[in-house]
Design brief:
This protein is α+β, with helices and mostly antiparallel strands and 196 residues long. Helix content is 40%, strand content 15%. A four-stranded antiparallel sheet has the order 1-2-4-3. The longest helix has 25 residues. The radius of gyration is 18 Å and the shape is globular.
Length: 196
């Protein structure tokens, strides 16, 4: 059985898509980011909790502050990307549950009354949403350069608050010259999938 999704779309989203390390100067517009969000917001999360929060870093001053918290190897690409997004988990997502999960509004208190329960769930589900976000960037015809090499506490203090956990910093734009490394190997189907 073949996939229903058009092969060109499969290539755009997965087979030909690559992590970009360099970018052109072409800007990423607010309209493009809005279109990306309007697509990926429909990806599933537990209890529809949608804990991902996106901080767009556009100004020169904010970019300099962010670069200071990036690992040395990530600094040049973060400094030169047309747009950078800080993806974080909102540990107080439960406040929105009565609206987001009207089938069981009590979930806010029944399952997520304790901060430790919220933090674990927020991290897992925001990471899932971050993956949707990367695929959405690709669907917009752009390249994403997701990175976890940064000072998380520094970014939290600089851009967020104690209720948000930074997960991934994503450089976004049209890929530049020599943007990607050669494709690395992937595990085969039978190395990953077990039937019981």
């Amino acid at each position: 059985m073949s996939l229903v999704l058009d092969p060109a779309a499969q290539d755009l989203l997965f087979r030909e898509a690559r992590t970009a390390n360099t970018f052109t100067d072409e800007p990423v517009t607010d309209e493009q980011v809005q279109a990306i969000y309007d697509l990926v917001k429909f990806g599933p999360t537990a209890f529809n909790q949608t804990p991902l929060r996106i901080t767009l870093v556009r100004s020169t001053e904010a970019r300099e502050r962010l670069v200071a918290h990036m690992a040395e190897g990530n600094q040049p690409k973060t400094a030169s990307a047309p747009l950078v997004a800080i993806l974080s988990a909102d540990n107080e997502f439960h406040e929105e549950l009565p609206t987001l999960f009207p089938a069981f509004p009590q979930a806010k208190d029944v399952f997520f009354g304790e901060r430790s329960a919220r933090e674990g769930s927020a991290t897992l589900n925001a990471a899932l949403q971050a993956a949707y976000f990367i695929v959405g960037v690709r669907a917009a015809g752009l390249a994403a350069g997701p990175m976890t090499g940064f000072d998380a506490e520094g970014i939290r203090k600089e851009f967020l608050d104690d209720d948000h956990t930074p997960l991934i910093v994503v450089n976004i734009g049209k890929p530049g010259e020599n943007a990607s490394y050669p494709r690395s190997p992937r595990l085969a189907f039978d190395e990953v999938v077990t039937t019981v």
